Amino acid sequence: MSAALVASPAAASPKNLPTLIPLPNGFRPEGIATGAGPYAYLGSLGDGSIYRADLRTGAGEIISAGPGTPSVGLKLDAQGRLFVAARAQGARVVDTRTGAVLASYALTTATPTFANDVFLTKRAAVFTDSFQPALYVLPLGRGGALPDASDVVRITLSGDWSQVPGEVVNANGITATPDGKALLVVQSGVGGLHRVDPRTGVTRLVGLGDAAPLTNGDGLLLIGRTLYVVQNRQNAIDVFTLSPDGSSGVFRRRVTDPDFDVPTTVAAYRNRLYLPNARFTTTPTPDTTYAVVAVDR
Question: pTM value?
């Protein structure tokens, strides 16, 4: 996979950020994460490599060579550590400054398993499993110290949750409620949004009025009380205003773009949303092109 992709000098202007950021051919992106700076981090479903893109210019490079297993959902913490959902391999933590893998975790011994996405709270990293009715919690110690492998906590989903058995995508994107007291998880295949008690795993369906089901719901992004829900094969983002406790929401609009090609998840920088095109309806080859698409919030 190639490294730097150079954009024109004009693209570096804050008023003229690129809206289409090319990725290396054959990269197969899925997750994306941003932090305080003008960079996005993307993981490869192919070999798990981590790519850093400069959102001001579109240039980028591989910063961590993959272990040969997938990188799916990603979240970046304030220490520059990238928490990576790694499908059947569980999870790992990557130092974005050095590219080193700081820790790896087998989240469960259950099969099948598919660690799909991750959300960071002040005290933990919480992972979804698309093939099991469970969340996995990595409790963080003082100063964000990473836990031992034996410290992983399983939270079984119950309440309104009805797991579709087998290798079917159930739990996918995850974020917090606006008041920070619970979690939100989208169940992709059935299109439901669940409010999850993080202590008990009891879920309640979020009331979304007359909004259409969130079929193929993938990445979630909460900004204030605004929830962005990526629906990958619909090539769309549905936007909701949530109640403070996240128990209900009102549909506001649907965002689409002609450059969307099965976008999977979403991260924000300034007034824009950034989505990687996973192109799941295109047979991947080493020459298949991929990109990140930027749209206005």
Answer: 0.94
